[in-house]
């Protein structure tokens, strides 16, 4: 089966009231005429047309991530109940390819889908105030907190872990720059039903960093990796030190406390420049596993929200840490735009879910970036540029489906 051939007229994907996805979603190609990509499918320009020679790749690149993820459920239904949605065996083959490719897409690109290391409200579809350009202050209410800017970044876990797409979200009110005190809130973004019960997981927050920790450029728009913010050598030293802590036999809470204590007790010389007075001094350790771990935001807690600043949108958000900055004291040089380093550490448990400890570091801050404004021609979201790996695997799967009985 050649994926570059024209799609036949009878290929349709429709959503009915039983799908439970909450919004209509349908996908249609008609070889006899140009087909308009419906707005609910994710076309960024209302009425945008797809020519009759549209290929599978063209179709997918015009679908935003939330619509694509929702379509996977419908595709599975179509394969299992072909009479309810499809009218030909050819359609069924195409749907198989889409479904399998979608699974591979989610597994292989969840950590690579952001256009830059840290993204803000422009990318995450936060609501903005009336008459306010998209790149300026947002009006994001998440549970009981109001944010005018956020920063969102993937945790750079290795491919061996079972939790692709884990992310950190930081929310702040930018107008707090005129107040001597303001609050910083941090959330873990995770795939639905993420389970850390077989491992020990910790989040370590560093507050006593020096003014040298940061990115080049404007404090509002700059972003990058921790290696950019506080050197590759210091990041490597912190990850190595955290992963080497012996936590055998300890509860998650005690294990995370031990990681914090050892980081406070011994500082690697490569990190001297990045801590005030060569002392981390103020580190917070939060268990992400075990009975003391925070719980994801519930539907009830989020009932008054107008914003869900995570990608993909079906991911959960868990408030992990919150603290107040008082700039009349030791925090006099800290702002809502300051960089906060976070270590995310995993230790193996009794099962083989994780074979060895892993520690990774994020340097999170809010990002307000005018260059991230969505446009009609290029689209937006994680599927703005189709990853080469998806196209390759889709072609291979199509070939397998064509030759196998």
From TrEMBL:
Protein name as it appears in the record: Uncharacterized protein
Organism of origin: Fusarium kuroshium
